Amino acid sequence: MKMISKLKPKVGVCAFCSPMEVGAGRASASQISLSALLKKTGCEILELGVIDTPDKAASAGRRMAAEGVDAIAVACASWLEDYLALDMLEEYRVPILLWPLPGMESGALCGTQQLTCYLKQLGVASETVFGELRDRDCLDKAMKFLRAASLFFRLRRARIGLAGQRVRGMTEVAVNEIALKTVLGPRVVPVDIVGLLKSADTVDKNSAKMEWNAIRKKAGKCRVSDDAGIKAALILIAMREVVNHERLSALAFGCYPDFMGYACLAASVLADEGIPVGCEGDVNTVVAQLILSLLTGQPTHNTDWLDPMSDGSVVFTHCGSGSYSLAENMRTIELAPVRLVNQGVCSLFPARTGDVTLVSMMPGITGYQMAVMKGKALKTKMVFPGNPLRVKFSSHAKDIIQWIHNNGIGHHWAAGYGHVADEIRYLSIIAGNGLKLLKLEK
After folding, report:
1. CA-CA distances (angstroms) from residue 84 to 48, 66, 105, 115, 129?
2. Which of 52, 61, 170, 321 has the fewest CB atoms within 10 Å around its CB?
3. Stretch 327-332: mean pLDDT
């Protein structure tokens, strides 16, 4: 099984120039320097050299198509003809980062403005940073855009499993498969939940015992029988086999109410293997989990918004399906039956502290809506039997609640550690008008 790793953008790097213009002579060195800078910062690089003719532009586009890069990064060394970008993008259309280099006589900034004007009309996702290649603010902005481009590339090839169905009476979690594919790219793979559970009965029992024993050793306390634990481990192994067979990037499990507690333990384990598993058949939130997992390189929380605390912080949680890496202390993890139905195995623990980004996704009539907030996770007690995550925001909790109601934002939130709201904003730009971003600014 694959493990979680942060996105490593694959970028085609070149330099644009017009041969007779001031600054053209620095194009080759600029391309080499930009390649080295982006490689050092975590990108995989395809070096394309200097592009100063239509033939070179088209050839570079074909090379990028063959290699499957996520984005293009261009050092603009001088004034440039806009067709250099256009002919390249006709061969391979991906987001493009433009980095015009300072120089009063070069016209690089002028040429870039000329180009971005055209790209905007064509609907090509682009970003521009202006400054020397050593400018750290420019690099930070550039990398956020490139990570978003890489994320979009991954999402367009993602497969999201749906085992069972979404919860009856919870229409907001219904997935619009056509809109999801059109806007962000993932396709939904139906998984027969009855067949999945039957296949668990055919799993080797000794393998399940070994899996259960390893999990139990990680927890501080266990309130379930070995029979229940082994049954949960059988389902974990069966789910892992489905993930591998269908090449799933994530999986939504229709647990409530009939199958509560069946897949909670599997969700905790598979999260550490790079596969987000979400509750209640909510494909939309699982996609949000996948987005945050790819951006942060860590497992994510799948949560409900609960009541604000007296200090204005807000508790988020579900029944106990989080990765153990999300726990404040591994020794506080308690293996227990799931709430309400007293069956199955879930993992109870308060969540760890740190900066967090929260995302809520749901389909609309014309596409998808994504709401984004960022805050600080604080120390919390077990105020709800699950994986409570207590978050403090800059805005007052009552104002956020009003913002949620005013914008028709759903009750499920995916939460990831780290602040990646800027990358998500770029993702919305790259995805286009079909993705409506609602960002809590404060």
Report:
1. 13, 19, 21, 9, 19
2. 170
3. 93
Rg value, the chain, Cα: 24
Quote the CA–CA distance of 406 and 193 in Å, as a whole number. 36
> Which residue bears the tokens 């975590």?
42
Cβ atoms of residues 428 and 412 within 8 Å: no
* CA atoms 27, 28, 30, 35: torsion sign: positive
Helix (H, G, I), strand (E, B) or coil at 382: coil
Q: 100 and 43 in contact (C-beta within 8 Å)?
A: no
Judged by DSSP in three states, 95 sits in: coil
53-75 average pLDDT score:
98
Which amino acid is residue 93, in one-letter code? Answer: R
Handedness of CA 59, 65, 66, 72 (dihedral sign): positive
Listing DSSP states for 63-85 in one string gives HHHHHT-SEEEEEE-S---THHH
pLDDT tens readout for residues 182-200: 999 999 999 999 999 999 9
Q: How many residues does the chain have?
A: 442
Task: Please determine, for residue 46, whether its predicted confidence score (pLDDT) is greater than 60.
Answer: yes
* Total-model pTM: 0.95
Structure confidence at residue 5 as a pLDDT band (50, 70, 90): low
Domain over 159-439 is classified CATH 3.20.14 = yes
Cα separation, 188 vs 286, in Å, equals 11
Cα–Cα distances (Å) from 379 to 55, 347, 360, in that order, read 59, 18, 23
343 CB neighbour count, 10 Å cutoff: 15
- CB burial class (10 A; 0-12, 13-18, 19+) of residue 55? exposed
Strands 354-363, 412-417: pairing is antiparallel
Mean pLDDT over the full length of the chain: 96
Fold assignment, 10-155: Rossmann fold (3.40.50)
- The CATH 3.20.14 domain(s) of the chain lie at 159-439
Instruction: Reduce the DSSP state of residue 11 to 3 states and report it.
Output: strand
pLDDT in tens, 394-418: 999 999 999 999 999 999 999 999 9
